[in-house]
Amino acid sequence: MTEKFAATSEKWGSDEHSFKNTVARAWVGSPIVLKYKARMITGSDDGNPSLLLMNHLAPECRNGTLLVLGCGQAYTEHWLVASGVAMSAHAIDVSAGAIDKARAEVKAQGLTGRITHEVMDINQLKLAPDNYDGLIISQAMHHFEELEHICNEIAHGLKPHAPIVIDDFVGPTRFQYSDERLKLMNRLLSCLPPHMQKPPIERIPLEAFLLHDPSEGVRCGEITGILRTFFPIERELPYGGSVLYQVLQDVVPKIRHDDPCDRAIVDLLVAVEEYLVTNGIIESDFVLFLARNRKPAHHI
Question: DSSP secondary structure string, 125-194?
Fold first, then answer.
């Protein structure tokens, strides 16, 4: 791991950034928002987005090996192997601390021998040819800088027509929202009751990323276009987050989901964003891509 990503490694290996703690603070930590996400992806409040990706991966991976890039402290590969979607998995992350925790979880779940983990700067990814039966990247591609190189290696390392699942933030690079978007977010935030308040949302100075996590959002605004160039996209499923992601971040733990008033407030926030996204007034910042590999004309 290069010195450049020392802060990244430390951050994502910490207990604060475990899967459980990250989700608890995030916009999708609210069951109301999860229903909205399901509706956006599947067309039904009762739909299960996880089934879409499981059904996309399983035919090729149930007897094969799944590649997971940017696994963090692990959740995705454990879940997919334990559920039978993949026979085995190999997962890679830049954070040595995160990989240590992932390996401990493999042992605790009795999955030793079926899941392996590797510490690597994914920007320098090198894969053996035709080695993997499928790929999943979950909320990690927005940390990758060398997107073209990584996609080329993915095309090289996956078998022909292997399924690809990428679920990620594809909004403004480095979260540099427009003045209009910030104004809308803060107007909605100001409407929340006192127990749900937090400081105003501000545009993050670019130098702050270099200090705290130089990988964060480094080229996320380019992800969609690059994926469309490298891989046949079978389904491109936007599910919002264009306003709710920032407004509800760190607010979700304060929401009393058993209180009708709190639930009504979140329902209204969802209604505002859903109207804006579905009518094309603002673009969705989160998208689930279901794609396939195709071999490039040559491997660089």
Answer: ----TT-BSEEEEES-GGG-S-HHHHHHHHHHHBPTT-EEEEEEE-SSGGG---HHHHHHHHHHHHTS-G
- The answer to whether position 112 is within a domain reads yes
For residue 139, the model assigns a pLDDT of 96
Give Cβ neighbours of residue 89 (< 8 Å, ≥ 6 apart). Answer: 65, 66, 67, 68, 77, 80, 81, 114, 115, 116
Is 17 in contact with 140 (CB distance < 8 Å)?
A: no
Confidence of residue 49 (pLDDT cuts 50, 70, 90): very high
According to the model, what pLDDT value does residue 198 have?
97
pTM of the model: 0.93
Structural domain that includes position 17? 3-174+208-241
Largest CA distance in the chain: 58
Report if residue 253 sits inside a domain.
Answer: no
Please state, in angstroms and as integers, the Cα–Cα distance from residue 26 to each residue in 17, 74, 271, following that order.
11, 17, 18
Q: What is the pLDDT of residues 215-232, one digit of tens each?
A: 999 999 999 999 999 999
In a domain, 153, yes or no: yes
Residue among 47, 61, 123, 81 at smallest CA distance from 292: 61
Pairing of strands 233-238, 65-69: unpaired
Q: What is the CATH number of the domain that holds 31?
A: 3.40.50.150
The pLDDT-based confidence of 20 (bands split at 50, 70, 90) is low
> E strands along 170-276, which residues?
233-238
Domain assignment of residue 182, yes or no: no
Dist. CA 29–CA 19, nearest whole Å: 11
Q: Which two tokens stand for residue 118?
A: 């590797």
Q: Is 1's pLDDT higher than 60?
A: no
Radius of gyration of the CA atoms of the chain, in A: 19
